[in-house]
Amino acid sequence: MSIPATTQRTAPASSASFSGGEDPDHIRDRLPFLHRRSMMQRGVRAFLEARGHMEVETPYAVPTPGEEVHLHPFHTVRETPQGQQEDLFLHTSPEFAMKRIVAATGLPVFQFARVWRNGERSGLHAPEFTMLEWYHPGLGLSGLMDETEALMKAVLPSVLNHPGSAGTQDTLDLTQPFERLTMEEAFQRHAGIDLLPTEGDAQALAVAAGCPLRDGENWEDLFFRLLLERIEPAIGRTRPTFLTHWPASQAALACRDPANPQVALRFELYAAGMELANAFEELTDATEQRTRFHADRAARRSLYPQRPDWPMDEALLRALPQMPPCSGIALGFDRLVMLACGTSRIQDVLWISV
After folding, report:
1. Residue 291 domain-assigned?
2. d(Cα 289, Cα 16) in Å, to the nearest integer?
3. Residue 322 counted as domain residue
4. pLDDT tens, 266-306?
């Protein structure tokens, strides 16, 4: 199902800000974008259902919102009819629940999930947004890249214009095969750095990068600074780019590459200056996953001691050994719509912003 290009390529001048309390005119101004959003949602459903995926729904308020170190969930409290109270959190991803469904059924599944990440707000970020997440048993990372590329080509115009990194207009061509670039290749090509031998050694990475370490900066901090400053601006400009095979320390839910245990079977997808998706060939070893969760929890408590804690998701850990070999992806649906509409503001493609 191919969706034609929209006639409106820039954000409406009167679009509302994130201050909330929009008047009706602001919603009407955005109707071309919102119509496109609806069309794309139908197109995605048709694409995934045609490939045998079942749409599912999972709870939004959960005891364990996720384990990613730097994501901050919204906290709430559930009261029982007897007056007892239980801490719950609005999930940062439906991943844990969806994996339990895959483990129980063996089915390929997808979900348009509302997700929440506290403290995030910018042109690309909203504290509440829509995540398109799907899991495909029996599909490896390469096959998931094939499927993701086919989905994007089915629901996006074949050629898209977007602001370039130097203030010019770039053209994103979806008629060409998407680029597939390992993290090691990307750092070598765009930063002149042999990345993997430096892993865990911040000073070695700083020397290779020709930049001084900042106060308190560790290897992971510098890795992401270089990714943001040198790699991301150089990829996905004229065709979408899959950035694959991340250092193993940067993929807590992915299995390692059997051909090279230094890297994990993870990719992120970049297009027109945006990160669109994050994907893993899923780890199904519950013992290894528990170890990684404990490491993430220790890091989170050290970095954010004021943040609330939550129980380990034991239901997920029990389910993992029953999960078939599987790859899964989380794609920012709002950003996909932004790409189609040619806008750089996520609020332009939301029905209501608060």
Report:
1. yes
2. 43
3. yes
4. 999 999 989 999 999 999 999 999 999 999 999 999 999 99
Q: Are 353 and 33 in contact (CB under 8 A)?
A: no
Exposure string of 25-53, with b = 16+ CB inside 10 Å and e = fewer, is ebbebbeebbebbebbbebbbebbeeeeb
Residue 125 lies in a domain: yes
Domain containing residue 86: CATH number: 3.30.930.10
Spatial distance between the Cα atoms of 93 and 346, rounded to a whole number of angstroms:
18
CA distance 88 to 80: 12
For CA atoms 350, 272, 116, 111, the dihedral sign is positive
Q: What percent of the chain has pLDDT over 90?
A: 87
Distance CA 150, CA 133 (A): 16
**Do 88 and 63 meet the contact criterion of CB atoms below 8 Å apart?**
yes
DSSP states of 21-81? ---HHHHHHTHHHHHHHHHHHHHHHHHHHHTTPEE----SEES-----TT-B-EEEEEE-T
Angle of helix 219-226 versus helix 202-209 axis, rounded to 10 = 30
What's the domain count of the chain?
A: 1
**Minimal CA–CA distance to 309: which of 296, 321, 291, 328?**
296
The whole-chain average pLDDT of the chain stands at 92
CA 76/CA 54 separation, integer angstroms: 30
Q: What angle do CA 130, 298, 230 make, to 5 degrees?
A: 60
* Placement of tokens 């504290």 in the chain: 127
Which letter, b or e, does each residue of 142-181 get, where b requires 16 or more Cβ atoms within 10 Å of its Cβ? eebbebbbebbbbbbbeebebeeeeeeebebebeeebeeb
Could you tell me if residue 4 is inside a domain?
no
Q: What pTM was estimated for this model as a whole? A: 0.91
- Structure token digits, residue 207: 């020397």
What domain range includes position 101?
Answer: 53-178+239-333
Where does residue 215 rank: exposed (0-12), middle (13-18), buried (19+ CB within 10 A)? exposed
pLDDT the model gives residue 166: 66
